[in-house]
Amino acid sequence: MSDTNAPHETNNDNTELSGTELSGREKIIEVLKTIEDPELFIDIWFLGLIYGIDINEENKVAIQMTFTSAMCPAGPWLVDQVKTKVEALGGFTDVSVKVVFSPPWSPSEDVRAMLGLI
Question: Is residue 103 reached through a cis peptide bond, with omega within 30 degrees of 0 on the bond before it?
């Protein structure tokens, strides 16, 4: 028997969360973890290439990301992958990806260790 007056947790898009259901932001993060930088073979979330994920009340998603360098040859492909895979999640009315270079990307200690730089 459930208590219908119990508080319900909701996420940014006002959908109810249950035990293991992911929020819209968490779903986006999970899909970003599947996109690998084709030169480093490490996912863009772990690399720290995603600077921001905003979901507004109309379920429009705005993602800010960067590249490992301004001249990254895989840049356009990465942007396309982010947009395409987030759109494929469904439930969002619009997905935009903005590339920024401020602040410049700097690998975390974990990334440097994985790349053998420390």
Answer: yes
